[in-house]
Automatic annotation (TrEMBL):
This is Cytochrome P460 family protein. Residues 29-163 form the Cytochrome P460 domain. CDD domains: cyt_P460_fam. InterPro entries: Cytochrome_P460, Cytochrome_P460_sp. It comes from Shewanella gaetbuli. Gene3D superfamilies: Cytochrome P460 (3.50.70.20).
């Protein structure tokens, strides 16, 4: 009996991992390194030992409308990096007192499509935006996308984005 239970638990874990991956509707924006514009790079504000490069596609770079909202078809990428450390493990700061980016850890994507809004993938709603998380090689990184949604969802006054104002209005 115990062995059966262990087996069932293993199946349950496997199934939930698959569900997370299947739920991801945003696909890896292939070629973004060449085709997207880098609009901001900064020490991550909520992570003490990471750096982020923010890039946007052409639709997003056309700007926000008079209400501050981006058009459907907008895609933003956040390249999350580890940062250089001192020998004692503390974060190394540059002469500018900024972190120095090291290895690419995660490609975090947010994409706006009308159909994402019509059929939300989650009870946590972020308008027409949905999220995707990828490893540096473009493969899906098994992340709980509800964590992304939960942190971005309260930003109803800035189209669910943290850095949207760094892209000019139309
Ligand atoms: C705990 C809060 C939090 C969580 C969870 C979170 N983000 Fe964010 N996100 C931020 C903050 C803050 C920024 C601004 C840049 C920075 O400091 O990292 C940001 C920026 C972004 C951006 C650039 C556009 C913007 O809103 O400024 C993308 C794309 C993004 N996040 C995707 C994701 C994805 C994908 C996930 C889940 C894998 C995720 N985020 C989870 C807080 C969060």
């Amino acid at each position: 009996m115990k062995r059966v239970m262990t087996f069932m638990a293993a199946v349950a874990i496997t199934t939930s991992a698959v569900t997370i991956a299947d739920e991801q509707r945003v696909v890896y924006p292939k070629g973004y390194q060449e085709n997207f514009v880098e609009y901001l790079s900064l020490d991550r504000v909520q992570n003490p030992d990471q750096f982020i490069r923010l890039l946007a596609n052409d639709v997003a770079m056309q700007g926000r409308d008079e209400n501050g909202n981006f058009a459907d078809g907008s895609v933003l990428v956040g390249e999350v990096y580890s940062v250089k450390k001192n020998s004692d493990g503390t974060v190394k700061m540059s002469t500018l007192n900024r972190r120095i980016k090291d290895k690419l850890l995660l490609v975090a994507v947010i994409e706006k499509q009308a159909e994402f809004g019509k059929m939300p993938a989650s009870v946590i709603k972020t308008g027409n935006w949905d999220f995707g998380a990828f490893k540096p090689d473009g493969k899906v990184a098994a992340k709980n996308l509800d964590e992304c949604r939960a942190c971005h969802a309260p930003l109803t006054n800035s189209d669910f984005l943290f850095s949207g104002e760094h892209i000019p209005m139309k």
